[in-house]
Amino acid sequence: MTTTQKQGSSVLEATRAGVRRPPLYKVLLLNDDFTPMDFVVTVLQKYFGMNQARATQVMLQVHREGMGMCGVFTKDVASTKVEQVVSYARQHQHPLACVMEENE
Ligand code: TYC
Q1: More confident residue, 73 or 19
Q2: Model pTM?
Q3: Cα distance between residue 46 and residue 1, in whole Å
Q4: What mean pLDDT is predicted for residues 67-81?
Q5: Which residue of 35, 58, 92 sits with most ligand 1 atoms within 8 Å of its CB, as the best mutation to test the pocket?
Q6: What are the pLDDT digits (tens) for 42-62?
Q7: How many CB atoms lie within 10 A of CB 30?
Q8: Is 17 exposed, middle or buried (0-12, 13-18, 19+ CB in 10 A)?
Q9: pLDDT at 13
Q10: Which element (helix H / strand E) includes 68?
């Protein structure tokens, strides 16, 4: 651990082994042929804080390319988002798939 003196206070810098940023996880939506487009837009607004325009862009990317990213989060937050999205979709009888993947 390196110690830098800055205006009288000690700042510890993460420059050596044993001090790592926690891994981050992408939350991804997968396309299917049945979930309505407006439902996916609602999910992106409700669980990922997107406005209507951004949510529509992401939904259309998933629709055209098969997959799209909702955001990048710590493991616990990503896992909770996946659970919430899948649970909400099943409550509405939609097969929408949402998964998480380590961000490199
Ligand atoms: N492909 C769906 C449709 O045509 C829309 C859709 C978009 C479904 C994104 C899932 O993650 C998804 N109704």
Answers
A1: 73
A2: 0.85
A3: 42
A4: 98
A5: 35
A6: 999 999 999 999 999 999 999
A7: 14
A8: exposed
A9: 63
A10: strand 67-74
Cα–Cα distance for residue pair 99/49, rounded to 1 Å: 18
In the three-class reduction of DSSP (H, G, I as helix; E, B as strand; rest coil), residue 8 is classed as coil
CA distance from start to end of the chain: 26
Give the pLDDT score at 8: 46
The one-character DSSP state at 45 is H
Give yes or no for a contact between 23 and 75, defined as CB atoms under 8 angstroms apart: yes
- Ligand 1 centre to CA of 36 (Å) is 6
DSSP state of 94: -
Ligand 1 pocket, residue 95 CB under 6 Å:
no
Mutate to test the pocket of ligand 1, among 28, 30, 34, 37 (most ligand atoms within 8 A of CB): 37
Non-local CB neighbours of 85 within 8 Å, separated by 6+ positions? 27, 29, 43, 47, 96, 98
